[in-house]
C-alpha cells in the first residue's frame, strides 16, 4: 500500500495544455475518483500516473519514489482499461498470468496467484476460455483479476464500467467497492458517472479543463460545493441557480458578496403561492416512480427543477417554492462559493 | 409459382446460382484440366486428339521430366527460395510496418512517402540499375538477387504497407496493457501485435510465396546455370534442340509445379480468399 503525490503536474500535446498544473495527495489505501466532463483531462492524468503518457512538467511520487521517468511496469501500479484490453489470443488463465510471466515469476507461483485471484472473482470455471467466449461482466472481472495478480501498490481504473449495461454496472460497482475493502490498496478511478464517483470514493477530485476544481469527500462536494461548476456537476438532477436579484427580499444567511443562489431540486418544497422564497408555475411533471420531477417556471422566465415526493400538482398550477435556510448555496460573481 | 414453398424457392435459387457459376468457371477450369490431361498424353496426341481423357496414359512423361534436366534440383531451388523470401518478408515487413504504424520518429512521414513513391516506378525501369548493382556485387548466376529483390523491392514494400495498415487498426489499449505488464516495445510487437496480426501475416505469406514461386523475369536475367534455374525458367526450357516446345514434358512439369500451390490452396482455401480480400490483391 502506497501514497501518491502529484506536484505541479502538467501535460502538453504540442501547443495544447491538457493538464494545467495539478497538485494532489492520495493517501495510503484511499479510494480516489477523478470525475469531470469529457475532455477535462481525467483519463490523461490517470495515464500519466500509469506511465503511459509522459509528464511534461511537475513531479509524480508513488510512495517515496519520484517515478516521472520510471517504466509503467516498474511503478507498482496496475491498470484496468475501459475496453478491458484482454489479449484476444490468450485464455483467461494466460491473460491473468501474462504480466507475471513477463516478469519471470516461476510457473507454480504464477498458477497459484492466478487461481487465487480467479477464486476471489469467481472466475474459476472460466480459466480455459478465450475473451471472445465471455460476457461483458466476465471480461471486466478478468481485467480486474489481471490487475490483482500483479499485487500492485496502486490500482488504476479508467472508466471500467462504461461498457456495461445499467444493471451489471451497479453489480460491478459493488464488487469493486468490496474489492477495495478486502485488499485495502490505494485505488484511483476515473469516471464521468457521478453516481459511481459518489458511491465508490473516499475522496473525489473534480476536474475541468485540465485543472482541479475541488477535492473532497462525496458529502463535502455535495453539501458544500466550492464553486458553481462543482455545484452543478455533482448531484442529479443538477443544482438550480438563480440570480439573487430575482428573489424578493433578502434570503436567510445571504452573504454580502453573493450574486447567485443555488438550490438542489431535492431540497425544494412546494408551498402555497407567496409563502416561499419565490413563486413559480408548473410546466411539466415527470413521474419517475419514487418521486416526480417537476419543471417549474419562475416569474423571471427561468426554469427550475423540483424533485417532489407524493402526488404532483397538474401543469399550469401556481405554487411557491420553499427551502430550508441551510440548504441554500451562495456564489460570488467569480463563481466561487460565497460564505 | 404459387405452389412453391419458401424452402423449395431457396433450393431452386441455389441450383440456378450453382449452374450459372459452373458455366462461368469453364474458361478458368478448362485450361487447367487440359494441362493435367496433356501431361499424360504423348506429344502427338496433344494436338491430335481434342479429348480431355488421354487415349494412352503416358506416365513416362513424369519420369522424363526429371531426366531431361535437373528438375528435382530446380524444384528444390524454387521451394527454398520461395520459403526464404516468404520468411524474410514476414520478418521485415512486420517490423517495418509496426515501426511505421506505431513509432514516432523523425522522418517517419518522409520514409512512408519514399516507400510509396518507390512503388510507382515500373519494375522494367529498375531492372537495368539492379542488374548493374548485382553484377557489381558479384551475385550474377546466384540465388541472392531472387531473394533480395522481392524482399526489399516493391513486393516487400506492399507487404510492409499491408502490415502497417493492420497494425494501425489494432486497439492501442492492448499494447498499453502489454506495457503495463512489463513488455518492452519489441516485446509488445512480438507477443501482442504479431499474434494478433495472423490474418495479415497469412495474407503476406501467401501472396509473397505465390509471387516468388511464379517469378520469371528475374531468374531469366540473373540465372544462367541449368542447376540454378527455378521452376518458371525450367518450364520454359523443355524444348528440343531446335527450340520447339516439348509440350507433353512441359505440361507434365507444369502439373508438378502447381502441385504445392494446389495442396496449400485446398488446405487453406478460406484463409487464402480472406488474404486476397484483406490485401486488395486479385488472385
Automatic annotation (TrEMBL), chain A:
Keyword Transport assigned: yes
A GO CC term attached to the entry: ATP-binding cassette (ABC) transporter complex, substrate-binding subunit-containing
NCBIfam families in the cross-refs: PRK11650.1
Gene source species: Neomesorhizobium albiziae
InterPro entries: AAA+_ATPase (IPR003593), ABC_transporter-like_ATP-bd (IPR003439), ABC_transporter-like_CS (IPR017871), ABC_transpr_MalK-like (IPR015855), ABC_transpr_MalK/UgpC-like (IPR047641), Mo/tungstate-bd_C_term_dom (IPR008995), NA-bd_OB-fold (IPR012340), P-loop_NTPase (IPR027417)
Keywords for the protein's UniProt record, in alphabetical order: ATP-binding, Nucleotide-binding, Sugar transport, Transport
Major place of residence: membrane
Any one GO molecular function term: ABC-type maltose transporter activity
Name the UniProt record assigns to this protein: Multiple sugar transport system ATP-binding protein
Membrane topology note: Peripheral membrane protein
UniProt cross-references to Gene3D superfamilies, sorted A to Z: 2.40.50.100, Nucleic acid-binding proteins, P-loop containing nucleotide triphosphate hydrolases
Automatic annotation (TrEMBL), chain B:
Location of the protein in the cell: Cell membrane
Source species: Neomesorhizobium albiziae
Keyword presence, Transport: yes
Membrane topology: Multi-pass membrane protein
Keyword Transmembrane helix: yes
Residue ranges of the TM segments: 12-34, 79-98, 105-122, 142-162, 200-226, 246-268
GO biological process: transmembrane transport
Gene3D superfamilies xrefs: MetI-like
Lineage, broadest ranks: Bacteria, Pseudomonadati, Pseudomonadota, Alphaproteobacteria, Hyphomicrobiales
InterPro entries on file: MetI-like, MetI-like_sf
Top-level taxon in the UniProt lineage: Bacteria
Listed name of the protein: Multiple sugar transport system permease protein
Domain ABC transmembrane type-1: 75-268
PROSITE patterns, per the entry: ABC_TM1
Family per similarity comment: Belongs to the binding-protein-dependent transport system permease family.
Keywords noted in UniProt: Cell membrane, Membrane, Sugar transport, Transmembrane, Transmembrane helix, Transport
This protein's GO CC annotations: plasma membrane
